[in-house]
């Protein structure tokens, strides 16, 4: 919700800027029409584009308000507004380092504890085949004029060993069950580690792809800005249609929104990646030292 609200804010700002620009274009088109320099249909096309931009900006404000209310409900405040911004950081931790952190994942810790318990039970079940060794002894404190004292010692100690040759308690079945439980725990732990490793690699790839997309869209934005500037000049000189200006403005808006979306995808993917690897503190460091997306 937090970064969704940040993305909604950036998109809404872009839509508001587009609306203001198209409103200026529509006013300029009306002035040129009144001066006999522009056809009525050209002016009407510009006004339609302005109204469409106004509608999109209104929808953007509504979506932002919904997300803001959701965040306020989540943090239990009257009016919550995110104080941060989207960011990108071009130095990702090595994949091998993040994979090493998977060993500290809570699910693996739980499975490791269960595997340890199963190993103890397997070891204990094998103890059923071990002999029972015990000590015994006796000491006479009072003979009570017993005539047997002359033929029995006053004290004695001994060491005994008990080893059952036949047993009906099912020792073998208990060992087999314990070994099976241990093998299942080890298999489950190894399988979970593989699944987490695959998930980590996929999230790592998604974060890198979002960063590439963000950088690629920067050249799109620069091209769209230059194209809009040329179309505006051509329109002012009567060499371009109003729709050409509208198309150039919309191309710039689309490129900017796509870049904001890529930045949001990068941030959310990075948060999920570092959380999976147990590196939550690194996320806040990268947020503080990253490049803000304004």
Verbal overview:
With 294 residues, the protein is mainly alpha-helical. It is 70% helix and 7% strand. It is built from 7 helices and 4 strands, in the order H-H-E-H-H-E-E-H-H-H-E. Helix 1 packs antiparallel against helix 6, helix 5 runs antiparallel to helix 6 and helix 6 runs antiparallel to helix 7. It is rod-shaped, with a radius of gyration of 38 Å. The two termini are 19 Å apart. 22% of the residues are buried.
Decide which structural class fits the backbone: mainly alpha
User: Low-confidence segments, ≥5 residues, pLDDT <50?
Assistant: none
The rounded Rg comes to 38 Å
Rounded average pLDDT:
84
Order of helices and strands: HHEHHEEHHHE
Strand order of the largest sheet: 1-4
Count of helical stretches: 7
Main beta sheet, described? Answer: 2 strands, antiparallel
What is the tally of beta strands? Answer: 4
Strand content: 5-15%
Using the alpha-carbon principal axes, give the shape: rod-shaped
Cα distance spanning the termini: 19 Å
Helix content: over 70%
